[in-house]
Write a structure and sequence with these properties.
The chain has about 350 residues and is an alpha+beta fold. It has 15 helices and 7 strands. The longest helix has 16 residues.
C-alpha cells in the first residue's frame, strides 16, 4: 500500500491540471470550488468559479447579495439547491461566525449544503485534517486496482471503499492524497476508455490483469426514471411584454423563473393543449397565434423532462394579470434566472 500512495502522489505532481483552487488554501474559495464541482465537470465549472468569485469575492459579499442575484450567477449550472444552500450558509457564516468558517470536519458538517464528502475535502485541503474523500473517481480507482466487486451503491460497498481509502491516506499531507486519487480517476482511470496500457499501476491492477476493467465498479441498483410532460407558454403581446412567475414549490428549479406552465400526465399534441380550459385561462381567452414551437428533452438525475416551449402571440398581457404572474418587458428577461432549457429558448 505504501508503494501505491508514493507512486500516486508522484504521478499527481507531474500530471495534475493547473486549476486555480489548487493554488490556495483559502476556505471560502475551496468551498466555492467544491460546491460548484458537485455534479459538474471541471471544464464547465472553471468558468463558473471565476464568474462567481468575480461577483462575490468574499463570504460577506455573497451574504449581502439577493437570492435572485445568486441564482442568476448560477444560471445554466443546474442543481440550483446548491446555490440556495450556499447563500444560506454565507449569511450564517457572515452574520453569526464573523465571516470565519469552522476549522474542523465536524464544524463544517453543521453548515447547510455541506455533507460528509465536502466537509472532508475542505478540512483536509485547508486544515490538513485526517479526512478522506470518496467520490466516483475514488470508487473506480480502488475497485479496479484492488478487485473489489461489492456494489458501490450498497452500504457494504461504500464502507469497504471508504475504509480502504482512509487506510491509504496515511501520509503527512492528507489533502494532497485526496486530490491525487480523484485526479487519477478523472484523467487516467476513466469510466470509459481508461488509459490502462500506460497506467503506472497496470502490473498490480487486479482488473487489468484479470481483464475486468470494464466490469468494475459494480453497481447493484438501477435508477427508475420519472417522465414528465411540461408545456411552457411564452406569451408575447403587441407591446412586447410577457408574463413570468417564480417557482417556489418544493420541486426542480426552485427559485428560478418560468413562463406559464401546463403539465400533463402524458404527452399530448399542441392542438389538444390549445383546447384545454387551463390554456384558455392562461391566455386570457384571447385569440392566439403560435409563432414557434420548440421541443426539448432534458434529463435530470431521476427525471426525464419532455418540454414543449410555445412562443405565442396574443393581443394583451394585461388580461392575464389576475392569475398572479409578473408582467415584464421581453427585453428585460435577461435580468431573471431561468432554467437552462427555457433560457436557451429566450436567447433564440
Amino acid at each position: 500500500m505504501a508503494g501505491f500512495v508514493i507512486d500516486l502522489i508522484l504521478w499527481y505532481k507531474e500530471n495534475r491540471r493547473d486549476l486555480p483552487w489548487r493554488k490556495t488554501k483559502d476556505v471560502y474559495r475551496i468551498w466555492v470550488s467544491e460546491i460548484i464541482l458537485q455534479q459538474t465537470r471541471v471544464n464547465q465549472g472553471l468558468a463558473y468559479y471565476h464568474k462567481f468569485l468575480d461577483q462575490f469575492p468574499s463570504v460577506h459579499h455573497l451574504a449581502a447579495a439577493s437570492e435572485d442575484a445568486v441564482l442568476k450567477c448560477w444560471e445554466g449550472l443546474g442543481y440550483y439547491s446548491r446555490a440556495r444552500n450556499m447563500h444560506h450558509t454565507a449569511k450564517y457564516v457572515s452574520h453569526e461566525l464573523n465571516g470565519v468558517f469552522p476549522k474542523t470536519y465536524e464544524g463544517l458538517l453543521k453548515l447547510k449544503g455541506i455533507g460528509a464528502y465536502t466537509a472532508a475535502a475542505i478540512s483536509s485541503i485547508c486544515y490538513n485534517e485526517y479526512r478522506t474523500v470518496v467520490d466516483g473517481n475514488v470508487f473506480r480507482v480502488l475497485t479496479r486496482i484492488y478487485g473489489i466487486k461489492t456494489p458501490i451503491d450498497s452500504a457494504a460497498g461504500k464502507k469497504k471503499i471508504e475504509d480502504l481509502a482512509h487506510t491509504l491516506n496515511h501520509g503527512h499531507d492528507k489533502g494532497t492524497f485526496n486530490q491525487a486519487i480523484m485526479e487519477f480517476g478523472a484523467l487516467h482511470c476513466k469510466p470509459k476508455l481508461p488509459l490502462c496500457t500506460t497506467c503506472i499501476f497496470k502490473d498490480a491492477c487486479w482488473a487489468y490483469v484479470n481483464k475486468q476493467v470494464d466490469l468494475l465498479p459494480v453497481k447493484g441498483k438501477k435508477i427508475k426514471m420519472k417522465h414528465r410532460y411540461m408545456f411552457y407558454l411564452f406569451l408575447e403581446d403587441r407591446n412586447n411584454k410577457t408574463i413570468i412567475q417564480r417557482r417556489n414549490n418544493k420541486d426542480i428549479w426552485e427559485g428560478l423563473y418560468q413562463f406559464p406552465l401546463i403539465e400533463t400526465e402524458t404527452n399530448i399534441s399542441v392542438n389538444k393543449l390549445l383546447a384545454l380550459h387551463e390554456f384558455n385561462m392562461l391566455s386570457g381567452n384571447q385569440e392566439c397565434k403560435i409563432i414557434s414551437e420548440r421541443r426539448v428533452k432534458h434529463q435530470l438525475t431521476h427525471q426525464i423532462l419532455h418540454l414543449t416551449i410555445l412562443n405565442i402571440q396574443i393581443d394583451t398581457i394585461e388580461s392575464v394579470k389576475a392569475l398572479g404572474y409578473q408582467i415584464v418587458p421581453i427585453s428585460n428577461l435577461d435580468d431573471y434566472a431561468f432554467p437552462k432549457p427555457l433560457g436557451a429558448a429566450i436567447g433564440e
